[in-house]
Amino acid sequence: GVPHPTPYLAGKSAEDFRRGVNFAVGGATALGPDFFESRGLKPFVPVSFTNQATWFKNVLQLLGSVHNRTRIMATSLFIVGEIGVNDYLVAFAGNTTVEEARAFVPHIVGAVRSVVTEVIAAGARTVLVPGMIPLGCEPQLLALYQSGDHDPASGCIKPLNNLAELHNRALNGMLRELRRAHPGTAILYADLYGAVADLIVSPRKYGTHNSHRLWSTQATD
């Protein structure tokens, strides 16, 4: 029954964002265009966490006094992500190897840390950070790496799922550090990897006999 938050670009006043604000943009990356261009890569859209952080600051200014902002921040739920999938997709579209993409992990996790730290500094007391999906089960990558090392149980690509697991371990490690630094803030991790992997391996539990079709549908929504 919770209403969808207003897309940032569709609102203009504090009243427009009274029930929340959504800064997400399809195809957006955690890392900025400079990071990719320095590696000969081109993002799908020119929007990253940097833009979204600026938009967040703009909304803060709409909320009036510092006291009012602090009150709203403390009673709001912040969801930072899920983000990072597009960073890896940009890399693979530019023929980056899975091994080379592993070097992206600390940069992406660092970008997440920066944004989480920023919302906490603004007064957030409840922050939810979703983890990475199983990349090796992503339809676009399954099509790209048809001859890859596939898991017989799921049909997913093992090296890509290993990359996603590496990402999630680094993300969890970073969140543990933030919890120690901000004991008054609830910093939560959402395990998207486990949820999606279970759906793919055990589709009948969720009312379907074709896990890849269901996953493809979810991935494009």
From TrEMBL:
Q: What's the superkingdom here?
A: Eukaryota
Q: Which InterPro entries match?
A: GDSL, SGNH_hydro_sf
Molecular function in Gene Ontology: hydrolase activity, acting on ester bonds
Q: Which UniProt keywords apply?
A: Glycoprotein
PANTHER family linked: GDSL-LIKE LIPASE_ACYLHYDROLASE FAMILY PROTEIN, EXPRESSED, ZINC FINGER FYVE DOMAIN CONTAINING PROTEIN
The entry assigns this protein to a family as follows: Belongs to the 'GDSL' lipolytic enzyme family.
Record's protein name: GDSL esterase/lipase
Q: Which organism is it from?
A: Aegilops tauschii subsp. strangulata (Goatgrass)
Species lineage: Eukaryota, Viridiplantae, Streptophyta, Embryophyta, Tracheophyta
